[in-house]
Amino acid sequence: MSQGFPSLPPLNGLKVFEAVTRHLNFRLAAEELGVTQGAVAQQIRGLESSLGLKLFERLPRTLALTGAGAGYATSVRQAFELIDEATRALRPEPNHLTLSVTPTFASRWMLPRLPAFTQTWPDIDLRVLASERLVQFHHEGVDLAVRYGRPPFGAGLDATLLFSQSVLAVVSPLLLAKLGNPQKAENFLRYALLHDGHHLWPAFLSFMFPSATLHHQHHLRFNQTALALEAAINGQGIALTSPHFVQNDLASGRLVPAFAQQMAVDAGWYLVSPQRLKEHATVLAVREWLIAQIK
Length: 295
Hints:
Elements (H helix, E strand, L loop, with lengths): L10 H13 L2 H8 L3 H15 L4 E3 L4 E3 L1 H24 L5 E6 L1 H18 L4 E6 L6 H4 L3 E6 L7 E15 L1 H7 L5 H4 L4 E3 L5 H8 L10 E3 L3 H9 L4 E4 L5 H6 L3 E2 L5 E12 L6 H14 L1
Parallel strand pairs: 3-4, 3-5, 7-8, 7-9
Antiparallel strand pairs: 1-2, 5-11, 6-9, 6-10, 6-11
Helix pairs in contact: 1-2, 1-3, 1-4, 2-3
């Protein structure tokens, strides 16, 4: 008679361990699992005790996997993915996909392309969540996310570059005709600067006017690029944006470049997803569609 798996540690401890390896933080793992921080710490201590070795180094502000812990984390994650795949195969779900994107990416890039998406993938039930923060994929049921910044975005996450950030200044043609060419510093000072959450104006001013120190008086501040762009379309001032977010506005003449030059930034827009042994067909399809749209 077979004995089963005599050396298998408690599965609950392994589930907690897998969550902690992604966050490297007991508090965040506890939030994801819906338990207390103390319960997470207790499970990890119990697991280390049953294995007879340390899985984590406790550092002042974070945790680090030991060599043994890192190897074990990879194997445990693969084992959970196999169980997850087997369970999905038993209960095939309809083609739901949840995509988390920033509000600006949602309104300025995703919305204009949704008709093409539904035409290409009529069977996929797409749910778009607009949020500035990087979601907890497993806990919030998110399959893919689009985020601005520089990788890595977190442990156990893959990041694929969609497009590098280059910064274009845009203005309404009516305001341009009224206030004059902003390439001239004396004209430029008449314009309001429309700020967003990326705070790129200081760097852009140094880029455009390297030999001048401009004491600009007029500022309007928004927490999202999409709002700054709406203000620019309405003739409120000059906004900074990725050219990818204003393609339609430039084509229709609602906005025009305030300066011919664009400023390159060491950051980009990335497609982020949890590392998986085998990607779900729906996720693969949407990932390929997003990348094809950029190209």
